[in-house]
Amino acid sequence: MLRVAAVAAPQYESAALGKGVLKSPDPVSVFNAVRYAAGLAAHGIGAWGASNWSASRRARRDAVLLMNAFEDDLPAFDLLIESIRPNLLLLGAMSLCLPGATACARRAKDILGDRVCVVLGGWHATETIYADVAGRVTHHPGSPVRLMCERRIPPDFDLVVAGEGEHVIAWLGERIAALEARRIPPASIRAHLNGIAQVSGEFIVAWADELQPVAVAGAGGALDRDALLPPCELFGVRAAFDVFDGRRTAHVFSGTGRGCVFDCTFCSERFSATGPRLALAGSADRLFHQLSSAARVIAEDTPGSKASAFVEDSTLLAGSKQSLRRLVELLAESSLDVRFGAQLTIDQILARLDILRELKAVGLDYLFVGVETPDPRAIGGLSKDVMSAKDTWMHRTESVFEALNALGIKCGAAILFGLGEAREQRALLLAQLHAWRDVLGAPNPVSLNWAVQHPLKGGDGGCEYRYDRWGVPRGAWAEAFRDFGEASVLYPSAGQPAPELAEVEEVAMLYRLLHTDARVLAKV
Fold first, then answer.
1. Geometric angle at alpha carbon 366, from 257 and 388, rounded to 5°
2. 3-class DSSP assignment, residue 227
3. pLDDT for res 522
4. DSSP string, 150-190
5. Which residue among 92, 182, 213, 323 has the highest number of C-beta atoms inside a 10 angstrom radius?
6. For 477-500, how does the pLDDT look when each residue is reduced to its tens digit (9 = 90+)?
7. Contact, 206 vs 137, CB < 8 A?
8. What is residue 524's predicted lDDT score, i.e. its pLDDT?
9. 142-200 pLDDT tens trace
10. CA 321 remoteness from chain centre
């Protein structure tokens, strides 16, 4: 029998998250990666249909764990491993989570030995194992396979999957079930990969063969994203974002593309790293289908609860006016009771206020924007700062908050330090955010981050970080970064110095003052 557990690896070694961290209890990236396999399980197909995932949404959800800090969440991880005793353990990791994934793999091997096949995937694998311009598989210095070959991390990842792994995961489950039937240890999977190259999707499966990286690239054609089920339909919904007034909150997708239409240097979703390919045709219809699924699933699983959703596109339907109008049309024709939020840039909002008014009427309650910095010019510019000739970044940001307030649309914002801004600019930005909140009620919430350099398939400004050490040391550093979303001491943005503890503590203190009287902040 196929027995599967999936884990979103932790970012911290040991640290309690602060109230300012925007964190959903639903591990969305993991849900996406396994949704094709979970769909097979839900419909009773093949080995997945006879696995521990073939039960209810709740049972499948209980086989997936979201970890924040390794030591704090270790009892939950041990319980998952001991209760399921998986022969397939799927680990998903961003770059800052690689030490956490390494620790989880080591723990699983200590408990189960070669009776478990450990597979690592996620953004970090995709950004560090990729094809170069000539089509050759390339390993960034942070590649988990390269790190295993160099003996920098234990050889506990049996396979690493980069790119589109949805069908690969399903295929591996079938193969492991076949190995189990023949009493062959699942950890020997690398000797039984014949045929994997023909699986659908643009992917690379890699592993460490002693001191030599080995890889197989997919040649089976593109995924049919229209055939992939919404994650909420397979795993249910546990989140309830504050901005939706107690409604259950699903994570939904339009499938417009792999990343963002902009190419801001600090972002892991920049199109130069993810690929600029867009799938706008049918994107509004796909999103409407996912919103409908969210409303139905929430009604089925939690009777009496109302539905909401957050659209996980980098920018809602890539900001396409045609697609946004199509979404308005679909929602207006339905009787769907679902409120939703999404992301757009400052300039996209200013150029689409008429459409946003229509979207508000059919369910748009919330927008999340990236403010990042008070002056993009001071940090070398932002790709999304497209209206810079018309007005300053801060004036346009204020116009967005005013306009959304007039439309009755709530708005949150992300700020990002460590990009090269002056120290005093941070205090000025936080003071300005405080003033806007007092007058307009926005932005709320505010997500605080310190810039981390991502591998970006080698486009990392020559940093070549390995990411094999925890990015935030325990103790004073962990406390200083408590309210930060993404942050690191060891992996600063290219060309920038590592943060100093005093400056981070200063920002953390000013951030906490966002919740106090504006006159107090002005004195500070």
1. 65
2. helix
3. 54
4. TTSS-S--SEEEEE--HHHHHHHHHHHHHHHHTT--GGGGG
5. 92
6. 999 999 999 999 999 999 999 999
7. yes
8. 52
9. 999 999 999 999 999 999 999 999 999 999 999 999 999 999 999 999 999 999 999 99
10. 25
CA distances 267 to 98, 352, 449, Å, are 18, 24, 12
Q: Which residue's structure tokens are 């690239």? A: 217
Q: Which two tokens stand for residue 157?
A: 């990842």
Domain boundaries, the chain: 4-217, 236-343, 381-524
Helix (H, G, I), strand (E, B) or coil at 276: coil
Interior/surface letters 174-207, b for 16+ CB within 10 angstroms, e for the rest: ebbbebbeeeebbbebeebbeebeebbbbbbbbb
Strand order in the sheet with 307-311: 248-252, 307-311, 338-343, 364-372, 410-417, 446-450
Task: Please report which residue ranges of 157-310 form alpha helices under DSSP H.
Answer: 166-181, 231-235, 271-274, 283-301
101 neighbors 9 (Cβ within 8 angstroms): yes
Distance between CA 316 and CA 324 in Å, rounded? 8
Strands 446-450 and 248-252: what pairing? unpaired
CB neighbour burial string for 405-441, b if at least 16 within 10 angstroms, e if fewer: bebebbbbbbbbbbbebeeebbeebbbebbebbeebe
Looking at residue 495, its amino acid is: G
By the 10 Å C-beta count (0-12 exposed, 13-18 middle, 19+ buried), 476 is classed as exposed
| 353-374 tens-digit pLDDT | 999 999 999 999 999 999 999 9
365, 339 Cβ separation under 8 angstroms = yes
Global pTM? 0.95
**Per DSSP, which regions of 43-87 are E strands?**
64-66
User: Cα(394)–Cα(251) distance, rounded to whole angstroms?
Assistant: 30
Q: What is the share, in percent, of the chain residues with pLDDT greater than 90?
A: 84
- The strands making up 159-163's β-sheet, listed across from edge to edge, are 64-66, 4-8, 88-92, 117-121, 159-163, 203-209, 212-217
- Nearest 5°: the CA angle 73, 120, 150 is 105
Question: Distance between alpha carbon 119 and the CA centroid of its chain, in Å?
Answer: 18
User: Which residues does residue 438 pair with via DSSP β-bridges, in sequence order?
Assistant: none
